[in-house]
Amino acid sequence: MNSDRAWDSKELTIELQEVFSFVLQMAKQCRGDSRALLLVLRTLEDLHRGIREELFLESLPDNRQELYNLLKDIEENGGWPYIERMKLRAFLNQELFVSTDGDLVAEVSETSEPES
Predict the structure, then answer these.
(1) DSSP assignment, residue 104?
(2) How far is CA 44 from the centre of its chain?
(3) Tens digits of per-residue pLDDT, 93-112?
(4) pLDDT tens digit sequence for 16-32
């Protein structure tokens, strides 16, 4: 475990809140643009994966007591961070894709014929 750099929990919390606010504001600016919002979500997922695989794993404790303390902290303070993916069925169950009798339907936009 690389603990030679001390960090101030309060300062880190404040900085993370600023990041949170920035990303949320960016997402709000993309409201109504599903492709842009999907890009935001994919970027956050990539960030989560990168931190977990490249930084968190290398910082794991190298003795049982520190590992126990870390696991205890994870359990007591909200569990393992998780980014949930929307299931395809939940996505398709949106009003846009469900008929009045509950069957899934494909919403097809009509296109006009090009003028000659």
Answers:
(1) B
(2) 5
(3) 766 665 666 665 555 444 44
(4) 999 999 999 999 999 99
